[in-house]
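Students often ask why we bother predicting the structure of a whole assembly rather than each chain alone. The short answer is interfaces. A chain on its own may look different once its partners are present, and contacts between molecules only exist in the joint model. In this exercise we take two input lines together and write out one structure for the complete complex. Read the inputs first and try to guess which parts will touch.
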Amino acid sequence: MSVSAPTLITTLPGPRVTTSYWRLVGRRLARDPTTLTAGLLLAAIVLAAILAPVLAPYDPAAGSIRLRLSPIGSPGHPLGTDEQGRDMLSRLLYGGRMTLLAGLTPIVIACLLGGVLGIFAGYLGGAVNSIVMRTSDIFYAFPAILLAIAISGALGPGLGNTLISLSVVFLPRIIRVAEAVTVQTKSLEYVAAARASGAGSWPIVRYHLLPNVLAPILVFTSTQVSLSIILAAGLSFLGLGVTPPAAEWGLMLNTLRQSIYVDAWVPALPGVAIFVVSMAFNLLSDGLRDAMEVRG
Amino acid sequence: MTVDGLVKHFPVRRGLLRRATETLRAVDGVSFAVEPGETLGVVGESGCGKSTLARTVLRLVAADAGRVSFDGEDLFAASDSRLKRLRRDLQLVFQDPYASLNPRMTLRDAIAFNLIIHGADRGAARRRADDMLEDVGLDPRLFGGRYPHEVSGGQRQRVNIARALVLDPRLVVLDEPVSALDKSVQAQVLNLLQQLKAARRLTYVLISHDLNVIEYASDRVIVLYLGKIVEMGPAETIAESPKHPYTQALFRSAPSMDPAQRLVAPPLTGDPPNPLNPPSGCRFRTRCPHAIARCAEVEPAAYEISRGHLAACHLYATSA
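Now the answer. The structure tokens for the assembled complex follow.
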């Protein structure tokens, strides 16, 4: 039959659809139920923090002597009131804003700056590497919480200083990881093959190095987010971070701490919020690590 | 291509001040010539300097002494821009089919990358890459968009070969091109290399620790021991009558398929001596069954046994 040839061709496999790496990562993230739950929860919390002025039923700073420490479920105050009679729901919404800002900003700064410094140090090697790495080792020698307290103590309280001190805490950690993966990737044979074909430094960095070092750096950075949020809240709790009367989860935990004998549930709320957010970030980071794995 | 007195030493740094206390003589005065169109096999145990030789010859690491010239041009004296041009003529196929492909680049792009860095535009480079995939026996419509982890080791090695050949090189150094593959796949890849060589009039330097591979694919053979050439000659001559005691032992070490021969004591015992501190005189004397007093004192010169067949061993001193 004369039609046999065309039918043969149609049975050949067609061109394979090339999916980009990042689309693949997105699809894998969405398929994992734990990650999806954590992601949606975080999205809701971030959205609530951004929309706090719209969502909050009361002014977070407006107190009432008569309504101090109302229990959870009080009429008009679903999450009760704090020791000055301020609405807890409103304060948690505004507090989340501050805690997320104070926890996430240093991570973004440290990731950008640390990533660049670490990749430079790793790729260039030699004296540049020694200077960058030994300098970051000095900071790395102190425990995170001690370093954060020391720098914040020296600079004084306030949101700006919290951001600076936390950036300094996370910078050396990210530099370390970025340097390590860069050195490791640089020594792989596909980089040598590119060099053997006459590729200059920029194409090697752009096409071979960056795509392979960014994923590990991002995964590591994501594991540090929860720590950063806890540290930001911790600094406020110690009076070295955000100052009253602003609402911030760590600060709220501190001011409510004496009221724990009157009603244990309301003072626990900021702690629960910190726990839930950092847990969600950890789960998301685990999912991210799995989704970014190349060999699947 | 001629290689003359090539030396590559690695300083071993120890202690707080990282002073070079010892040197590792990975390649220690190696000279040979590769004739256009031939396959030169380089064989030796692990750690004898085979891979360092490959990288030094192609100026991927700087040599400490010696000269490599290609078509009469000194490779080590070439300027950066000239070197970039020369790299198109001299290509390298790596050993590890897993580490030698970027896991985040499709097979098509991995091949096209080499053309793009030499000034081709993206579309043309991808089309050439597809043609090249076809030449190494991979359907570009099926494999072009795949990532390295989605294909087998043999297929990856085909891509490695395609990536090297897409620049139309004249000489290709194959650094253990099949040692990571299954026996059956080895034969396929070796045959593919032979076909491509004939079709594109290539010259190969084939580095391997596997005598079967070397014997099967080479015209001439160099036997390397601790960074020095111990024997050199036509492949058939060396396979039939190896002269240097090391080469002889190497051939006898190949496992036999004969069940009765299974328990024969291995002719080579122990590890090679520490290359940081090689034996005086002949480097093989510590493991050599024929070692005499002279071997410890004088390093043997290369004696010509027959035309083009040289062995560096005092046993042949009389015939020189």
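Check your guess against this: Residues 183-200 of chain B form the longest helix (18 residues).
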